[in-house]
Amino acid sequence: MMSILNVLLLGLLLLQVFLPATAIYENQAGLFDWHHTWVGHPREAVKINDNHIAVYSERNILASLNIETGAVEWRQVLDNELDHFAATEAGILTISSNPERAQFWNNTDGQLIWEHSPSQNEVYGNAKPIVWHNGDTAIFVDRTKLVRFSKNGEEIWTWTREANEDQVFERLRAFERGDLIYVVVEPNDENKSPYFLVNTIYATTGETSSSFKIPCGANYEDVTYTGDYLLWTEEDILKWTPITKKDITSVSIKSLVKSLPTADKFIPSKISLFGGNNAELASFILSAEFEDAEETLYSASVLVNIQEKTLNLDKYYGEQTAYGGADFYKKSAVRAVKSAPQELAVQIAPDGKELKIKHDFSLSGEINYVKLIDVEPFRLFVVTDGSSVYLYNESSIVWSREESLSGIAASEFLDLPEQKMWTQMTDELDETAAEQAAESPISRYIRRLTTHTLELRRLPSWIVSHFVGMSSSTLKDSNNKVSNLEAQSCWLNETEPEVLYRDNFGLRKLLISVTKSGKIIAQDTSRNGKIVWSRYVEAFSFTQLHVVRAAAVKLPPIIVAVGNTYDEVGGQAVGFVRLNALTGENYITAIPEIADFFEPVVATNIGIDKVMRLPIEDPDERTHILAIYESGSGRVYIYPDTLGSQNKFVTEFLPTFYFSNQNADGSMQGFKVVEGYRGSLKAEPVWKFNMPEDEKTIALSHKQPNEKVASLGRALGNRNVLYKYLNPHMFALVTKNAEKKLIKIRIMDSVKGSILYETIHENVDAEYNDVHIIQSENWFVYHFWSNDAKAKGYQTAVLELFEGGYENERVESTNFSSFDNIEPHVLSSAFSFPYPITTMGVTITRNGISTKDILFGLPTHQIMGVNKRLLDPRRPREKPSKEDQEEQLFPYSPIPDEKRLFLTYDLDVAGVKSIITSPSLLESTALVFAYGIDSFFTRSSPSKQFDVLSEDFSKVQLLLTITGLVVGILVSGPMVRRKRVNALWK
């Protein structure tokens, strides 16, 4: 017992000595990293006081935004689906589902005041709740009851509607008017009723005052509420009645709009009503959609006022290609619409005021939602289809937020070009062959010499900048930092774009992201993630991003974004968008012969299952070729499909082109691409792994892109070597058996489909705890929950593959081939892990010399970095031997719950779903970017910064020392020579 305790104590001691700490000093926070807090695409916004608005979003986030700056004052990331919310100055009520929950929040700091869940087998109704100014609330329960709660969450009264055996009622709506509550019971759309039922309830007691029926045979979408009125359409008739009494009035739509220029467009099947629950304004918008001769969709709308028994047309908004948005606030109605490609028109009634505000819709998409925050001073909250959020005053943008970055689908780091490329100073590459032949070598030499001489003008400023920066950190960003609010603002394309260059250490890169809302965005990593450019592609939802050409001399980097879209007839399609990565502009080739193959935006309706970037380039534009696999026909296409690309693909890559794909049923299949009829490409099945009926795939690993392996073996303490099994085609398939509560990890070869290794973990809960896996070099790390009695809790296991089980044993072959019958030797171990996780990543350095950190995204909104040395299957379980100590192996122990391992220190990085890394020019440093709801960027040095001077190093003192030595040599040199000469004369 004492020996085991001694081993554990020794292990803890060694951990403290050798544990790579990612902790930072307080003054370093935010110096090299940045964190962007997002709330998601807002679905609704409400002004809660003079300084704040509350929003809830599609990401199930409730947040408070500062009206003047757009800063997130507080937010709550809910773990269930947010369905409704209502807010006043007393607090904010949210209704959510899965599971059902009602929560009341303090609107000042976002703290939870009370929470309520319905009884078993009950659900909350699908109607908006009521919140009184004193903090009381009223919530529908089970579509049959209305329950009033006090500001402390105590139940005051419950109203239950009377059962109706003849009709099935689906929805209830409530309107608070003074001391009364009007509950409108709507019938189920599939069980149409000839009437609506209106119940009048006393707000203080919950007792029914009266009830009456309103004859109405309309569908849900034909009914709306505005002020104290209920409106609906029945064929070509518009009807309305006060909700306080049964008093139906009707008018023909044709007669109502007969004075409008587009009266013939208001066809009953194409019209819609939009109203507001504001009791102070009894107005609504009547709109109609129609197409012109070229099948372009238009919208015509008019503001209508209700004056008891009559309807008056107030404001005709005309025809627009998009409806825009509208809102009612107190006694004002506002309509925001796209009046020009770069102009937003805001019309305010009854004032008759019309505002023209500059807004580039090509960068944001059409208007999706508007909310009039205030009339005096004017503040309008606007959300677009691209998930960009703006707050406008009467003439310009007050602030904006690029909330599309809360829905990133894929991201890539992009290396910037060097500034001192001499070929960027001349135009030699742009010369034709005739111009090159006409210029003599002497004139060319003189031109180059002149160019470099002119560059000497920068020498004084270079010297001054280096001397001024002597006291600063070597790795400190030279560019001016921008504030978080500025970095999170939407790109407006109002200034001349900055020419971006790589810094000395390759720490400055572009971060390219594609979003689910159809945006492509580039951020500068060295300027707090400030947006450099952005593009909105209409009707796209992006899923993948490929860098097909890196920055090169005279050749800008190119990216291809892949996403789901629609074809010309509205069918599902997959689209490809090709852009210049430095500017965000469409990339158009300068070679006329291949212009048709390099269209900036291409869409196809073939069923694409997989897009692969190949390691070969087309000979014309030097871009990586993309291979596209369609499982339905088994066809493979290449993009771009130029003649040069086809020839290079067939001659250089086709003979060795194997790939694997996971089918819809979970089975894995391997293919070899062969040339078919008339040069077509066909995916020929090579192998298939059919999943057992009781198993289901839950995770799949992939090789890290751009990864370099520094050594082929692992040096042991006795100077022998274990050679790594470096198979570029291996991957791990993780499956679960829910009935037997086990998971299987299979390491497979994608070329021939063989199982290289298989292991089973029993007593694993994979139903409620996700399993994650990552691979790098010759090892795999995965995380799971174990219900094993001896080791219950979260576990992180490692599999490390070697060519042989004996020291110095390796395969006798100069080239690796998957067809060789080689079985790797696998070392494995499992470690207790302190947290659940949401995703995994691994650091990548320039040459792969530094040790690696495995990065874990935690549901507690943190990112934890664990050095690979802690996840070493060779860690001894007994007292370490001298050889173990020589190899710096410390005793087996659980992964420590050490806050110093958090890359995010005390930041709240919500919803991390993916972590990507990229090497810098420093071998010690990797760049890390995590995204999900929030975005977080930092630098990681798993082996510490061994290749740069520390911040404590005094460069001024070094310079003074060198200067003193030079002066000493200059002074003492003549004296020594004189002394020697005098000595010779003696």
UniProtKB/TrEMBL annotation:
<comment type="subunit">
    <text>Component of the ER membrane protein complex (EMC).</text>
</comment>
<feature type="domain" description="EMC1 first beta-propeller">
    <location>
        <begin position="23"/>
        <end position="403"/>
    </location>
</feature>
<feature type="signal peptide">
    <location>
        <begin position="1"/>
        <end position="23"/>
    </location>
</feature>
<dbReference type="GO" id="GO:0034975">
    <property type="term" value="P:protein folding in endoplasmic reticulum"/>
</dbReference>
<feature type="domain" description="ER membrane protein complex subunit 1 C-terminal">
    <location>
        <begin position="776"/>
        <end position="985"/>
    </location>
</feature>
<keyword id="KW-1133">Transmembrane helix</keyword>
<dbReference type="InterPro" id="IPR011678">
    <property type="entry name" value="EMC1_C"/>
</dbReference>
<feature type="transmembrane region" description="Helical">
    <location>
        <begin position="958"/>
        <end position="976"/>
    </location>
</feature>
<dbReference type="InterPro" id="IPR015943">
    <property type="entry name" value="WD40/YVTN_repeat-like_dom_sf"/>
</dbReference>
<protein>
    <recommendedName>
        <fullName>ER membrane protein complex subunit 1</fullName>
    </recommendedName>
</protein>
<keyword id="KW-0472">Membrane</keyword>
<keyword id="KW-0732">Signal</keyword>
<keyword id="KW-0325">Glycoprotein</keyword>
<dbReference type="Pfam" id="PF25293">
    <property type="entry name" value="Beta-prop_EMC1_N"/>
</dbReference>
<dbReference type="InterPro" id="IPR058545">
    <property type="entry name" value="Beta-prop_EMC1_1st"/>
</dbReference>
<keyword id="KW-0256">Endoplasmic reticulum</keyword>
<dbReference type="Pfam" id="PF07774">
    <property type="entry name" value="EMC1_C"/>
</dbReference>
<dbReference type="GO" id="GO:0072546">
    <property type="term" value="C:EMC complex"/>
</dbReference>
<keyword id="KW-0812">Transmembrane</keyword>
<dbReference type="InterPro" id="IPR026895">
    <property type="entry name" value="EMC1"/>
</dbReference>
<dbReference type="InterPro" id="IPR011047">
    <property type="entry name" value="Quinoprotein_ADH-like_sf"/>
</dbReference>
<comment type="similarity">
    <text>Belongs to the EMC1 family.</text>
</comment>
